[in-house]
Amino acid sequence: MVLVVQSETSSWETHFQCNGRSLLWDLRNPIKAAVAATAEHLAGLLPLHLAYSHAHDAAIEDWTWSIGCNPLSITSQGWIVSQIQVDAIARNYIITSVEESIQVVNSAIHRLITERTTPKGYNPFKSRERIMIDKYNSVVGLWRRISSQCSNLRYGDALKLLSLLEESSHGFAVSINTTISMLHPVHCTRERKVDIDLDITTIPVFILVFGMLWFLLRPRRAKPKIN
Predict the structure, then answer these.
(1) Considering its fold, how many domains does the chain have in total?
(2) In which domain, by residue range, is 36 found?
(3) Each residue of 25-46: pLDDT tens digit?
(4) C-alpha distances in angstroms, 128 versus 82, 173, 176, 181, 209?
(5) What is the pTM of this model?
């Protein structure tokens, strides 16, 4: 959520300076701040002066790169997003969507791998095999198309495929879950055989238990009553 506030001050002196003069912000016009906050928090766009330092393992600021007339530039008043920033936003959305798709597919495959196989489950699985393969090939095909378009810097065309990628990924997961649900009744209802392992110590235990029950439950003779 992005909250935008407005003040009556049209020329507020900030603590930033450029060429020895303090920068003034127009607090009556919050469009620049609103666009910057939206691009940063919802699209993952970072200011040009903000970078990551591997040596310090933290974010660092290099104000030399605070250039351009864009919403994230401190030294300008412009609020138009540049094409470089538009491409960066597109890459963020593409990477996030592809990673989520990979996680969904891998999770579905893991559930299928961990499913116990039985001879009676072969036919139900075989009837669903072609459907699962087609769903998987559809997802992989979209991965390749998105990768190809990104390599050609056609981020706009790649963005148009993200909704289809999400739908195909969840469709593959649903097909896996449906296949697993078809195998579960085989385990629960058709296999009712109970296996009992007998060893040398089991038979004496049965004899002992049977003897105790016979001793406790055997019919007893009635004692004559003597007055």
Answers:
(1) 2
(2) 12-81
(3) 888 888 888 898 898 888 888 8
(4) 49, 13, 9, 11, 51
(5) 0.68
